[in-house]
Design brief:
By secondary structure, this protein is α+β, with helices and mostly antiparallel strands. The protein contains 15 helices and 23 strands. The strands form four sheets. A seven-stranded antiparallel beta sheet has the order 17-18-19-20-23-21-22. Strands 1-11-10-7-3-4 form a six-stranded antiparallel beta sheet. Strands 5-6-2-8-9 form a five-stranded antiparallel beta sheet, with no helix packed on it. Strand 10 and strand 11 form a beta hairpin.
Length: 678
């Protein structure tokens, strides 16, 4: 679409009761981000109240009409996805504005490929609009959905706001409090403010299970500690959500041999069929009983917000032999039904194309909307887990979606540890589900095998016989990408923050070409590399697996402070790292080709000045912190396996190094954003 153009959604698809809007951008260096926001406007072009403004602190509408789904990795960066149930939008809402804003002085002109796309309920892309002239602005209205009679239309806007999120929100009637008015009512709203602080700056809580040991949140700087004592700046939420208690209750068991009774036992699971049946029934039952959980898993698949019922082992006619999908999900909204068939695999078993094809055909004939596959594998963009034929002649479209068990566990963990659910019983149900999924006998452990190509590729690297273009190297690269995405899900669930793999545009935007390039690099240098961006940390976490030396390297580059003296920077960094491992490698980054000083933390602790270049005229740009450890050789998830060693390396580096670093300045909600021009 071009700027200013509009289109009627119903003219492009019959399945536009719910739509998925994606806002995306890319960066040549893999850095740069923005926050999405949505405003529901009445016929006067204003919000009815602050409750019509949805952003990172208020991501979901109570009626299900709007849900910010968070970021999803793409071939050249990431996309922020928003689910709209247009049938649930209140009748007094005339327009829905979709925008995004940058923070910390950043501008959209620093990003590449700024765009918005819209897909129908079947996941089929309907339109794309590129915002090409967003230069020196901190916020952009990408587009708007608006009513014309009974139909919904979309208009491509691309309007920028130099004043950022606060200026945009003010224009549409969101109440922006100044510091004086906020301080005046601090006393009367202290309890509510305490709740909001915990929502705006989430911190992990102690675990009830040994397998759920908490990862600490990044340590705040001195300035942030003072800011944390003030009320969080964001619109008030209507109702406090329930999360698991912070303190672990003392057990009443006489000794460790007494095992707590569980709602979903795993002791009787003897076969893969038993595991699939139990896992499917357990998951679907919790989805139906905990609305936030069921909605969170299905919103991205085009499901409306409504009454959900789930079914297991349903028999459906298909030729001479009836088919029995593992489960069925049905959602009712305004008298209309949305239905998805579910095919489940556990214990690393692969999905079968013939089975999935049969369910796609059944769904098409019966008018169902989707088929959802669920397994330990992780789907990659441009690399489907199963190939199915879709009859384009059929008027009714069926969407094929995939979930990993790791994504299911991530959604449960985010709700019970960070975002909260409606009541304590629902939190307990999710905790029981999470305990079940993480039990060694459930078969729902996520990606846990690097595949049959792992050993031949390692051997080829060792004896220098692996050549560029080798198909097995490409298989290992795809497995590595799946592993990294799962590591992001696990760490993000622990922290309650966004953790995403970084994709740099200079590596190409086509996923197939990018993986081929990485496979060639693996053949040449014997290394697998990845980068993770973690919200609340000062830099990108880099991970490298050197298959020649059998070493894993985790590292982070932190920028030099804008103010102060280099010796003060060095002393402060050493103080921050007082609890970090002695073998932490510290390198001073400089703008010279010769490089800066390098030493272990053990050596630098008594003499921080050793971090400074001998030439006083050398400009220090930052510091690189890195740890090395041996990696597992096995392709699986055993104690000595490669996958386990990668998980351990990332967790160790975060908990012992990154958590002690100064966090970047926290993003503020519109209630406190300073309004500046230019």
């Amino acid at each position: 679409m071009t700027k200013g153009s509009n289109v009627t959604l119903a003219d492009m698809s019959e399945n536009v009761g719910s739509v998925l809007v994606s806002l995306g951008w890319a960066s040549s260096v893999g850095d740069g981000d923005a926050d999405v926001s949505v405003l529901l406007l009445d016929e006067n072009g204003k919000v009815r109240s602050d409750g019509d403004f949805y952003f990172y602190n208020q991501p979901v509408a109570a009626d299900g009409s709007v849900q910010l789904l968070g970021k999803t990795p793409t071939a050249n960066g990431s996309e922020d996805r928003i689910s709209f149930d247009l049938t649930a939008v209140p009748v007094e809402i005339d327009r829905i504005v979709v925008a995004a804003s940058r923070y910390d002085g950043a501008r959209f002109g620093e990003l590449d490929d700024v765009r918005i796309t819209l897909a129908d309920g079947a996941g089929e892309d309907l339109l794309r609009f590129a915002v090409d002239d967003a230069d020196a602005v901190a916020a952009v209205i990408f587009g708007e959905l608006y009513r014309r009679g009974e139909a919904w239309k979309f208009r491509a806007i691309g309007q920028g706001y130099a004043a950022g999120l606060a200026g945009l929100a003010t224009d549409f009637g969101v109440d922006i409090e100044d510091d004086a008015s906020t301080e005046a009512d601090e006393t009367s709203s202290a309890a509510a403010d305490d709740d909001e602080r915990s929502a705006a700056l989430p911190a992990p809580e102690p675990r009830e299970e040994a397998t759920l040991e908490a990862i600490p949140a990044p340590r705040p700087s001195e300035d942030e500690s003072a800011a944390a004592s003030r009320p969080a700046a964001r619109p008030r939420t209507a109702k406090k959500k329930v999360t698991l208690p912070k303190a672990v209750k003392k057990t009443l068991a006489e000794n460790d041999s007494w095992k707590q009774a569980r709602l979903f036992p795993v002791s009787a699971l003897k076969s893969d069929r038993d595991r699939e049946t139990r896992a499917t029934s357990t998951l679907l039952s919790v989805m139906a009983q905990v609305p936030e959980f069921g909605r969170g898993l299905t919103a991205a698949f085009g499901a409306p917000a409504g009454r959900m019922e789930t079914f297991a082992e349903v028999s459906l006619p298909h030729g001479d032999t009836p088919r029995r999908p593992d489960g069925v999900i049905r959602v009712e909204r305004a008298g209309k039904l949305w239905t998805a068939l579910v095919e489940t695999k556990t214990n690393g078993n692969p999905l079968k194309a013939e089975q999935v094809q049969a369910y796609m055909d059944i769904a098409a004939r019966r008018g169902y909307e989707a088929v959802i596959t669920l397994s330990n594998d992780v789907a990659l963009e441009g690399s489907p887990l199963v190939d199915v034929k879709i009859d384009r002649r059929r008027k009714h479209k069926v969407a094929l979606w995939h979930l990993s068990w790791a994504e299911v566990a991530h959604q449960a963990q985010m709700l019970i540890r960070h975002e909260g659910v409606g009541n304590a019983a629902h939190a307990w149900l999710l905790q029981e589900l999470l305990h079940y999924l993480q039990h060694e006998n459930s078969g729902c452990h996520g990606f846990q095998n690097m595949g049959p190509a792992w050993v031949p590729v390692r051997n080829g690297i060792d004896n220098e016989t692996l050549c560029q273009g080798d198909g097995q190297a490409l298989e290992v690269v795809e497995s590595w990408e799946r592993l990294i995405r799962q590591v992001c899900l696990q760490l993000g669930g622990e922290l309650g923050q966004k953790v995403l793999p970084v994709q740099r545009t200079r590596r190409g935007t086509d996923p197939t070409q990018r993986r081929s390039l990485l496979a060639d690099q693996l053949c040449l240098y014997g290394k697998l590399q990845a980068e993770l961006r973690i919200d609340g940390t000062p830099g990108v976490l880099a991970l490298s697996a050197d298959l020649r030396t059998g070493k894993l390297r985790t590292a982070i580059d932190i920028p030099a402070p804008d103010q102060g003296y280099p010796l003060s920077w060095a002393k402060r960094l050493v103080r921050r790292l007082a609890e970090a491992p002695a073998d932490l490698h510290v390198e001073t980054l400089v703008d010279s080709e010769t490089g800066g000083p390098r030493a272990t933390l053990e050596r630098l602790r008594p003499e921080p000045a050793d971090m400074l270049p001998k030439d006083n005229g050398t400009h220090i740009t930052g510091f690189r912190l890195s740890l090395r450890k041996s990696m597992g050789s096995g392709r699986g998830n055993a104690e000595s396996g490669f996958i386990r060693s990668v998980d351990d390396a990332v967790q160790r580096f975060y908990t012992t190094v990154v958590v002690h670093l100064d966090s970047p300045a926290p993003r503020r909600g519109p209630g406190r954003d300073p309004v500046t021009a230019g």
